[in-house]
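Per your request, structure below.
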């Protein structure tokens, strides 16, 4: 896994890869739409630390790096397959941002005792200590929450278009940036999902129900689903039900940190069903090859191509 100080150096020297830029975006996710300042005495301290750890070219813009040093307050350390960033807002509240890369997952325990299982390529941002009125955090990617009940402090998750509010329950939130829809799936308790700019759009979910928010028209609908299918990843299982092959490939690329491509785009519309164990990738591909009319070929380290013809309409 790339070290943050290396990523910062490569970004400001304009030689960072797309993957490194995405990693850095995870760190600054919590700053979107907010201005933060730090104690004037802290700014130079952060600057000296980053300057000591990261050498940048003149063309990279030391002024821009200073802005990052002051507003982001980067913690130059990584570990346990998850990188962490400490932030503070104007009220002096300390925030922690935990991120997983592709091929990684993590289980986090929040300050109130709630447990979060963070899926691959995801970022969760939360205060070091929750306030007296609520327990608010933000998510990009996918996570399964087991929330400690607290009727005086609702648990609020902001994830792009939607806001999810609970008192104590367990549910899955999927809000990946590249997706055109976000999903909230409930396994226990009651969950309120809404689009903040459209308060009348709110839906209240009970176990076995799911809310789907569309980015195309900002709509929000609730429906009954097989919840086990949407939480299967927490049990290391891939549970498919007429799932487009293109969607399956996207999930596998994140879960295993590989690049799987299709021989032809028409294959992406093929629908797959069945349950598969998420262990060794090639074992999973062998199972898909056996059950479906597709084959795969390994073309290099972490590079695979799926072959087959278009599916029957």
């Amino acid at each position: 896994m790339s070290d943050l100080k290396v990523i910062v150096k490569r970004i400001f020297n304009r030689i960072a890869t797309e993957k490194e830029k995405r990693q850095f975006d995870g760190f600054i996710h919590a700053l979107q739409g907010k201005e933060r300042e730090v104690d004037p005495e802290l700014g130079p301290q952060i600057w000296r630390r980053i300057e000591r750890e990261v050498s940048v070219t003149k063309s990279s813009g030391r002024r821009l790096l200073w802005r990052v040093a002051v507003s982001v307050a980067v913690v130059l350390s990584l570990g346990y397959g998850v990188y962490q960033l400490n932030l503070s807002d104007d009220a002096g509240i300390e925030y922690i941002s935990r991120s997983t890369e592709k091929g990684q997952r993590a289980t986090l325990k929040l300050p109130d005792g709630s447990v979060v299982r963070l899926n691959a390529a995801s970022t969760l941002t939360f205060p070091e200590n929750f306030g007296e009125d609520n327990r608010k955090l933000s998510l990009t990617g996918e996570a399964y929450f087991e929330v400690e009940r607290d009727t005086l402090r609702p648990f609020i998750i902001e994830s792009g278009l939607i806001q999810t509010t609970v008192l104590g329950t367990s549910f899955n939130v999927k809000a990946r940036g590249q997706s055109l829809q976000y999903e909230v799936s409930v396994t226990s308790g009651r969950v309120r999902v809404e689009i903040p700019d459209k308060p009348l759009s709110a839906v209240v979910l009970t176990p076995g129900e799911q809310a789907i928010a569309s980015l195309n028209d900002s709509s929000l609908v609730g429906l009954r689903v097989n919840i086990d299918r949407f939480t299967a990843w927490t049990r290391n299982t891939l549970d498919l039900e007429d799932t487009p092959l293109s969607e399956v490939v996207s999930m596998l690329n994140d879960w295993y940190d590989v690049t799987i491509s299709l021989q032809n785009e028409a294959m992406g519309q093929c629908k797959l069903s069945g349950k598969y164990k998420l262990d060794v990738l090639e074992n999973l591909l062998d199972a898909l090859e056996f059950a479906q009319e597709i084959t795969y070929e390994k073309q290099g380290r972490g590079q695979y191509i799926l072959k087959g013809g278009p599916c029957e309409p």
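The chain has three domains: 1-99, 105-233, 236-307.

Regards,
D.
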